[in-house]
């Protein structure tokens, strides 16, 4: 607790170095002279506050980035790729540890900082030494509500700059950490072996990889049901998975003897933790398991609470920023709650349905003894699930913005199935090296269990009140979103939530889903579209499947083009004439407007008027000096001209204009508006 408080102290205030060193010296001298709880608490508090201050405010990477790369500039950099590149639609992204950086004016700086690199190349591998040319600058922060803030997340890892590279040259291969390179090769082999015979079912294979290795890229379509039932922890390698692996290894190796089995099990647990990404939750479980197994080697009974505290201190000492990692918080909070509270809950539940206490156990019948054994095991599982669910509620509300009410029964079903899946996966990997045909048989058995798990979780998620969206009530509001090329807005009124221009599937997953889920919205009232472009290719389909709106409002002249969309998604189409209210509320009104440039949606509200088209979004605010804000436009100038025709700013006399993306918007604005 003192270490955690020290980290929080260093996060909130800059502790003067002389005061901190004096406090540490006095506390150490006091402890040397006479042990006492007060200096024992002051010493780690001040030490961890100083270390965290060094890792945040005074981090060399932060100071170097602020001094040289506060603004974007062209550079040539050379370094080694230290993470596995993650591919996306535009290329790949990875972290490079720099050797040297050369700016456009010829300055050459040696450096050992980490940069995140974004490139169109997909052939970069871990351990490659590369030369990259591009634009280096600050990492962009999140621009939409509820979006993942990559800038803050990378800053916790000591990464403060980004390089957008248009040219990369590979200098040498295999320059990375050999241990991490071995772990990556082993994980890739595990993924390949687990997919033999079942690669044609990517969602099930993704679930198997998620339960076994913590790889979730192929299981995104399944994650919503697991979140809603409080079983999403199965996709994150944590204490549950590490404990299962330790249990399997101990059972298989017990013939070797107690000490050899414990030593081999410890090595196997850490190897599994390394292969699955060395995440805080799995490292915590590996340390605790190792301490308990090491106690057996020296004939000592391990204390789980002491092991938890030791793991906390070791991990926090290695990186104080882990205290702000959600996985780290969740792991220790749930593990501590289980260790401290599950026995109390179990003792209370055991009083329910217990046999007559005056009946000696020797006189129990065989059915009664069997029933009592099952009852005790079931109550133990219920007690652990209940305590874990209560401990996870703050994170469920804060991260997923929902309260899973069916978490206890869902975990009672999911945990045994996932344990069986993990056992089959380990057996498949064991045979994968000597008998691939046998490994494929186990993979098919694993496929059947995965299908059973998916069906069970989906059925529980469909139950009434399986989960309750959790969000603070908000006043009616209009939110303009940055979706790149195009426009999008969300209108929240008491009658429901309306989305204007949902965009493509990427917009739904990257922008709309995080924003709406952060506000506790799982279903919207309606979708408003002004153009049929993209309907034929199925652009709105991802949004309709995710949020199931009651209706789609469209201009009356386009109704023939939306027939297929209505039939394929079972959603009502409401065609409206110009001037007819789509949404009418005490504060906001939305209606279609037809102009020479096509259809747009005009939203009027307190002090604002918004005109939204397919590719343009223009907002006019009424204040002492009228503001016209151009949020987004396509690269074409004609789209900007069309957006400017929506508002006649010349009547205002004087206006203030801001642009989200200056570029091609200024000239059309000056030409059309003549301010």
Provide an overview of this structure.
The protein is of the alpha+beta class and 675 residues long. It folds into 5 domains: 54 residues; 112 residues, OB fold (Dihydrolipoamide Acetyltransferase, E2P), CATH 2.40.50; 211 residues, no CATH class; 64 residues, no CATH class; 197 residues, Metallo-beta-lactamase, Chain A. Helix content is 47%, strand content 19%. The strands form 4 sheets. A 7-stranded mixed β-sheet has the order 16-17-18-19-20-21-22, covered by helices on one side. The longest helix is centred in the middle third of the chain and has 35 residues. The chain is globular.
Look at the helices and sheets and give the structural class.
alpha+beta
Unreliable residue stretches: 622-628, 630-665
* N→C terminal distance: 61 Å
Give the biggest sheet.
7 strands, mixed
Helix content: 40-55%
**Percentage of residues in DSSP E strands:** 15-25%
Shape: globular
The structural domain count equals 5
**Secondary structure: number of strands:** 22
Q: How would you describe the oligomerization state of the chains in this entry?
A: single chain
